[in-house]
């Protein structure tokens, strides 16, 4: 029998427990696919004495994660703890020690993936992280391998299940954000503290990973323009429906002539767009490439079992490499393109204004748009008295020009409030 591939697991929460379960249930198949058995030699947890209904020897649990990583008999370190530290310290120790690493840590990769890639390249070992973006959906490997001979021009995706559930609920029921968030929390789709999801931090980290891989350029989460969904209202949803659209939190990465643009924000998209029908807590990513054309990847983007499935796929790959005495290429960042600021991004906008009900309002508002070079596509005025509303949809305009327009509109006496400003994508 070929020697086993010895695996250290860091973390045994929702995802880690599923990794353990799948390792046990699929033991024979995994051995056949790899050419050697996988042997779990340790599991780092916060509380080693806690009762766990898992098919492994309780003596494998340890609270000394760093000690486990440093063990000479460990071949592969699997990390599903998350966060920046101490995960970064653990993984760098593993890579410097010549161990392969499989991680689902989008926050760490989004902030400091370059350091991990450098350590992997110097040690001649593997760093795999399919599970860091879109759960079970095979996405990063197609970007890295299958499309490596093509030029990807744009990646547009729904990569956060919590926000997609909330927005889908608002769209289907007419509920406000607070009510939809409450429902998501009750069903287990939202964390007790949902900030990372609803404010777009989670999606921004994933957008950075996608852009880095698609455009061969190092992009960090700090480079990504980020807006959350907390300001999306039931009225915004109603306006979107009236336009034949829905609202989704999108990550959008675009290859420009001499730069890349990466942003995360809510946007109206036509109901005919492939991403519009992605409901509940599902994820989907729409990839556009010069030769391959349009591709869409869809599936469960979170949860213990789906994420564990992606982890095991990576574990099989790195284990095969170790047995063959080889490793995959590290990051491809040769393009080294700058990230263009959001102010330069061209986008269509949907602006809703609460205005005074009197003559000359439309002319005054139109004058402000013209002053800043923002072209108006459509205008709809409704309501009377205190209910007077002006809805404007623009042609594509630079973000900084639209921001200047909105700032001046807020200062007009005839504008009681700028009720909402939403981007319009997919048209």
UniProtKB/TrEMBL annotation:
Domain ACT: where? Answer: 350-426
Which keywords does this chain's UniProt record carry?
Amino-acid biosynthesis, Methionine biosynthesis, NADP, Oxidoreductase, Sodium, Threonine biosynthesis
Q: Does the keyword Aminoacyl-tRNA synthetase apply?
A: no
Reported cofactor(s): a metal cation
EC number(s) on record? Answer: 1.1.1.3
The protein's annotated catalytic reaction(s) are: L-homoserine + NAD(+) = L-aspartate 4-semialdehyde + NADH + H(+); L-homoserine + NADP(+) = L-aspartate 4-semialdehyde + NADPH + H(+)
Pfam families noted in UniProt: ACT, Homoserine_dh, NAD_binding_3
- Specify the pathway: Amino-acid biosynthesis; L-threonine biosynthesis; L-threonine from L-aspartate: step 3/5; Amino-acid biosynthesis; L-methionine biosynthesis via de novo pathway; L-homoserine from L-aspartate: step 3/3
Q: Does the keyword DNA repair apply?
A: no
Family membership, please give it.
Answer: Belongs to the homoserine dehydrogenase family.
Physiological role? Catalyzes the conversion of L-aspartate-beta-semialdehyde (L-Asa) to L-homoserine (L-Hse), the third step in the biosynthesis of threonine and methionine from aspartate.
Protein name in UniProt: Homoserine dehydrogenase
């Amino acid at each position: 029998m070929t020697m086993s591939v010895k695996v250290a697991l860091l973390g045994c929460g929702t995802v880690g427990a599923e990794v353990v379960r799948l390792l046990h249930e699929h033991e024979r198949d995994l051995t056949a696919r790899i050419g050697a058995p996988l042997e779990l030699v340790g599991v780092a947890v916060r509380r080693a004495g806690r009762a766990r209904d898992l098919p492994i020897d309780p003596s494998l649990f340890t609270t000394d994660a760093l000690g486990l990583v440093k063990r000479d008999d460990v071949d592969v370190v699997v990390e599903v703890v998350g966060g920046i530290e101490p995960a970064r310290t653990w993984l760098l120790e593993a890579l410097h020690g010549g161990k392969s690493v499989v991680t689902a840590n989008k926050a760490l990769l989004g902030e400091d993936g370059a350091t991990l890639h450098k350590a992997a390249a110097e040690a001649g070992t593997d760093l795999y992280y399919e599970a860091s973006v879109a759960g079970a959906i095979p996405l990063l490997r197609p970007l890295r391998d299958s499309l490596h001979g093509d030029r990807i021009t744009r990646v547009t995706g729904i990569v956060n299940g919590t926000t997609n559930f909330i927005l889908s609920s608002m769209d289907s029921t007419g509920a406000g954000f607070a009510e939809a968030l409450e429902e998501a929390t009750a069903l287990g789709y939202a964390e007790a503290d949902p900030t990372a999801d609803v404010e777009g931090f989670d999606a921004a980290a994933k957008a950075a990973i996608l852009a880095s891989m698609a455009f061969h350029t190092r992009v960090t989460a700090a480079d990504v323009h980020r807006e959350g969904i907390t300001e999306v209202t039931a009225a915004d949803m109603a306006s979107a429906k009236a336009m034949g659209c829905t609202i989704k939190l999108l990550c959008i990465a675009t290859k420009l002539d001499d730069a890349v643009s990466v942003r995360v924000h809510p946007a109206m998209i036509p109901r005919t767009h492939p991403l519009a029908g992605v409901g509940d807590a599902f994820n989907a990513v729409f990839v556009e490439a010069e030769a391959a054309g349009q591709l869409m990847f869809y599936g469960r983007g979170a949860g213990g079992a789906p994420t564990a499935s992606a982890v095991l796929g990576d574990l099989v790959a790195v284990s095969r490499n170790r047995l063959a005495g080889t490793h995959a290429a590290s990051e491809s960042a040769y393009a080294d393109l700058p990230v263009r600021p959001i102010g330069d991004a061209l986008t269509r906008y949907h602006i809703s204004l609460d205005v005074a009900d009197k003559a000359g309002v439309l002319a005054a508002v139109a004058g402000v748009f013209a002053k800043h070079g923002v072209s108006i596509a459509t205008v709809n005025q409704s309501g009377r008295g205190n209910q007077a509303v002006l809805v404007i949809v623009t042609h594509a305009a630079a973000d900084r020009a639209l921001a200047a327009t909105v700032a001046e509109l807020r200062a007009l006496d005839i504008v009681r409030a700028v009720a909402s400003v939403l981007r319009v994508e997919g048209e």
